[in-house]
Specification:
Layout (H helix, E strand, L loop, with lengths): L2 E2 L15 E2 L2 H9 L5 H30 L10
Length: 77
């Protein structure tokens, strides 16, 4: 089962990157945090690896699409 990138507990989240996601409780905490709160910076540090995974995944997807000649999305073929 996937684990939350923040609290490391198992989660049934709908959004996954690799083996990680963000559980509902942590999501609620993130959304309710005030940037002036000391815990806000800690949360951002915990989210950095997740953000990097998302960006890398997106870049790989873009590279694969650029290298693909399948024309799956090209309606002119």
């Amino acid at each position: 089962m996937p684990k939350c990138i923040i609290c490391n507990k198992e989660t049934k989240t709908e959004i996954l990157v690799g083996e990680h996601g963000i559980c509902l409780q942590c999501e609620k905490t993130i959304l309710s945090l005030d940037p002036e709160n000391n815990y806000y910076a800690e949360m951002l540090n915990k989210l950095r690896p997740f953000a990097k995974m998302v960006l890398c995944s997106f870049q790989k997807e873009q590279e694969n699409a650029a290298n693909s000649n399948s024309g799956d999305c090209d309606e002119t073929k």
